[in-house]
């Protein structure tokens, strides 16, 4: 493979446009005659709907349509269950508009379309919904209590799913293990909080009989397929475009959010374009959330700190519905073993309904929970045996010669959880150098003398990435010499316009800036899954590579004909196609594309060049026969990974806790990351940077709080803390590359990595900082208030230091 | 091949829509904010432009843009020469707007865009163009006169092209032939006169950076490629759609008519949609025309009536420009030999510029001229030797065992003129029966006794069809069970939505009504040439067949997986895919399409069926691997014929001439047609019907008349006669089928056939009716007025009958 651009820190193709304010987000679309929608949402976490009176709203001037469940006809179907699973015995999905009962604060009840958003919102206030409030399941404790009230009347015990998996013989190991400990660990709800909330613009084109939807989504192709089925339209008469998307983080994978059906429904009904833009308040109460779990974990280890077995039983909060199946708890279960040789493992989870916003994957998707659990275990072993925390990890690592390593579980994609490659000790060794790990105890002790509480913590993770089923790509050289590449995956900041361009540029001998990549437009490329599960770079990138390689081969065959040379003697470089050692026998790639069109049309400079070389044939003729891939320098490529890859990484931080306020500041943060071969190290570092920032939010700041009525108590940025640049430390990133043997480019996937280990290392570092207090961190996010409260509960820290309180392990 | 539908007279898929008025022609498009254009055209056939003052037009309220040549920037380039030829030594093409000189009445000078067509036309009247009239070349005689004025100052003798071809040794044969005769034959200009004139709607979409043009054209893909080059846009950012087109007949193949550049130019400039619709007056003076030739033909034959040699030297009127090269006269030269064994042939033509509308192919495209010449020769031989006219033809036919027959000339596509198959005598035998030929002399004699002048005439032709370079097609099965097929060719009444559907339906075991065919939309299929040269059915039809066959194979492979059966045991019939002899192992074709989507989305009935058969996989997975053609039941096919096919046919008619008025009425009309295998005999008959009607116009009614100043004298339907239903007789059509060995389906092409021999048989029949007068027909169209004048010139017909005037052959 030519690798001039692959692996280089190429500047981003997207930046000139975005930095000049030329981004095109859904809300930037302003179509002639466009109407605007607003949603009336349930103020109750659980209530019966007795009656809806929309008559006053209908009379408001400027109101075009008021939809309740009764108006939806055959579209009033529960959304599809995206990923069924045999353990999900009681799946429930949402109606586009609630009919008889609302099940969370924010559930959509009425959809209003008017000439402006102002009028639409005014109309909402004129709608009279008669609710009868019902008892609420506001958390996992209530959900699992005996004889509790039910989120769905027909789902006994609120149990959506239950799944147990066993590896080896944990019961036997526990019975004879030298040390057995157990702990309850809790993860509270958080949310993705993309800068751009959700949004939909739908346009029914009566001439084309074509429905176009611009949606801030991660999965336009599946949405296209679904909308076609729902509205009885041919798939190619529905176009779904994900334009620029201001962050997705999983919360925008969904199909279907109600508004993604209601907005096109309204456009079809009215024959006019309709826009709905989610405001931040709506985002807090209607965009899917994640994270809520409670783990009861038991672990066995020997005197050397070798982990012998784990028994992890956890509850998973799915909110009011299971739109995305049980992917998140499955990932938690499969991710828990991490980089460690865990031969005996019992995993059991129960998925419970609660009267809260439904759960679907959010960046990390169950992994931060798993890593939090396993890294807590590692720390506990170290604490128990008074070993260095990193030494305990080293003693448990899977070794480089043990790959492929079969964890023994069925992964989220239904395939085996088999690690393809890795070198965990190498990563840890790098990190120790970056953190000056060996000198830290001295620094810590010195600081403590000055009344400063410094701690160091490390979190190691293995992340399943690059799952199937497949992606595709189309690559086309145009007469202007530029290459237009398209794929079904979307982009929400992942720099696909750059990294895919690098991959294509290497094949076709051009610069990445001359490759124009289109993502997430079902009209540009109409096959694919979407951008999630850290898969786009690997799966769509491999498809890009395969498509571009086909175009390269077509180009060489055609050039061989044109120049009367052997295909093997044709070179592609610097935008030119030429005969090796005879550079005067040369055309630009664009001119070769003109030659590849059986009815070519040369113009201006290209026409003169072809004429001068006597290559502007006087008569049309087939350029490339069908058996060589048809006309034009274009080709499709599809890539379907045999199973997911497994990236890994280790983060470490030194932080300082202010014991009087509970505030924590980072003094140093370092990460070593292994996602196989790097397409663009600068881009990967950007991904890690963003992930760590989001991880710091999830470790310390961000926690959604609900009261006993299921009312969200901090549903605004006044109350829900997301870290700003001021809270994020300088980040030192380094890489190791253990190429994946699964994909043609050896890459894995880097999208979610940054966020995964942060809560784990944060807990470890805070415990380390406050070690004299014996404080134990058993929850994420920790939150400054919570840490303050915990500090109040322990004895005066000063006294604790002097008494050197021992860990209170059971 | 399965042939349930192939060959059957399937009802047209297009009819329910068109008969209900749901057609969508360019002028039906009404976009929000659309502006309207009108063109100021030259009132002179030749003049210098001294000055253009548009200031008054610009101040008219509602005018948005006034364009002269000076405003076009780098778009002010002569249109491309579509088909260069080495004999075309002085090609000239037109600027979008005339700059220094106008060269025909109707040439575009100023383009005005306003809020309505009314305002735009008012603005035209405010524009002051100062012309200096120049001497005019109004016909071939003037064009070829020594020291005449020049249409293009730098083209000496007005000679655009000159080409001579020789087969065998005609000089030698002429020197020793028993009989040599010569004659001058003239063909006057006519025009296609489609019911729908030309039209363009252009929309520049600022969000998509996409230019969409709806054009009433026969070649949207080449126009797309050209507009992309002209406006420096990527090809995939220009979409050209030929929606419903109300007749093309060749006159809509062009690229570029000025308005096809100016309308998108205006839309790009203004950022608004712009519509230009040609009115009938404009169509008469700015849509390309054809037919004008003068032949001096010399022919040698023996005593048995066997044609020994032909020497044909002709002038071809190309009008003011050569946008389409010299295709028309080349076709004339190649078509002249017809079904006859012509071993010695000298053909020479000179293409001359005149100050008239440019010439490009019009249905028949040079062939009616050739057939007129050759069939006049056959009649003259019969007259000279007092042989039956058909017997002379029979004595000269190429025999069925002589195929492939090499005519010895280079055809319009640059390939050999090689007839692939035919059975000319069989066609003539059928026609004789249909006309009751053998009993006609008795009827004719009886009628003559009653003062009625009946004549019989026959015209035989061979028509080159199905030229390359290629066409392609895409076939896609959708979950609704319908199949969506698309191709780059356009349709203007050829029933492609039906015949392509038949071809696809046979492969996929469904009904033709469940195949939705899209033609002429560069976004639906972006490769191809267009619909002309009687090629779409064969070339695009073969591509359809190949694409559908691929989908059939993909379906069988997938079904074999799904049902765990051998691919060879899978059947496709009645919309179902099932295992042979196990019909319960069955899915609909639509359900199989859902299975072929790696991220399938089943809904409603389909979901229930798949679930019931345990085929609604719980997890997504690749359906068909890339090496089996990628996901989905879809495939592309491309077909490139090795060279053109040659259809043939013979028409005959019995007509009656009213000697007092010169009016002619048809008593009987019969045609035997051989276009290889018939996809749909009803559709082929419809094509023949329309062609004959148009041929009758071209034989008798339609003639464009210009005065010495190059002013058209009959540029309206008040003066230019096109036949109505009243003038068209009942038509009896029969077929013979000599399958083409060149294409996978054995079809040839039928689009132009009907029109080709009509003028020839008309001349023959009129001469026969008026045989006693010795009248000789040497021109087409004859026109009622002209026949009346000719009848005045001969002696009183009554007297002529009594004197039995002999033919005045030289």
TrEMBL record, chains A, B:
The keyword Translocase does not apply. One of its GO terms (molecular function) is iron ion binding. InterPro entries: Ald_Oxase/Xan_DH_a/b, Ald_Oxase/Xan_DH_a/b_sf, Ald_Oxase/xanthine_DH-like, AldOxase/xan_DH_MoCoBD1, AldOxase/xan_DH_MoCoBD2, AldOxase/xan_DH_Mopterin-bd_sf. Transmembrane segments: none annotated. It holds the Pfam family MoCoBD_1. Keywords: Molybdenum, Oxidoreductase. Residues 20-135 form the Aldehyde oxidase/xanthine dehydrogenase a/b hammerhead domain. It comes from the Bacteria. The keyword Oxidoreductase applies. Gene3D superfamilies: Aldehyde oxidase/xanthine dehydrogenase, a/b hammerhead, Aldehyde oxidase/xanthine dehydrogenase, molybdopterin binding domain. This is Dehydrogenase/oxidase. It comes from Reticulibacter mediterranei.
